[in-house]
Amino acid sequence: MDSTRLLKIERLIQKDLSEIFLTQTKRMPGVMVSVTQVRISPDLSVAKAYLSIFPPDRSAELLQNITAGKKSVRFELGQRIGKQVRSIPELVFYLDDSIDYLANIDQLLQQ
Questions:
Q1: Maximum separation of any 2 CA atoms in the chain, in Å
Q2: Mean pLDDT in residue range 1-27
Q3: In terms of C-beta density within 10 A (0-12 exposed, 13-18 middle, 19 or more buried), how is residue 76 classed?
Q4: What is the helix, strand, coil percentage profile of the chain, to 5?
């Protein structure tokens, strides 16, 4: 069971990562990255961020670019939340395909 502190830190990281990706994707028209969920380890050392990327056909390429630049994302996250947490967790990014899964189910139900 997650503690209240872990949940607060997860929400904080999710909010700040969303703002970071919003500012970074403003330079790329037609691309939207949203952070759907963040899970943090109990020792606060690793944060798993699940990203929903639009358009879906470029999601693998964009996820690879985000993973390649995760040091700069972690640094910017540290600038934002450095006073609230003792150490900035390592970031691991995953592609959240739940929206595609729901669209597939909806399509199957339409048939």
A1: 53
A2: 90
A3: middle
A4: 55, 20, 25
Cβ-contact 74, 91 below 8 angstroms: yes
Beta bridge partners, 33, equal 53
| CA angle at 7 for the pair 83 and 63, rounded to the nearest 5° | 80
Provide the 3-class DSSP secondary structure of residue 89.
coil
3-state secondary structure of 68: helix
How far apart, in whole angstroms, are the C-alpha atoms of residue 34 and residue 2? 23
How does the average pLDDT of the chain come out, rounded? 90
Contacting residues for 106 by C-beta, under 8 A, at least 6 apart = none
> Three-class SS of residue 36?
strand
Tokens (6 digits) for 106: 């909806």
Please tell me the pTM assigned to this model.
Answer: 0.85
Distance CA 3, CA 60 (A): 33
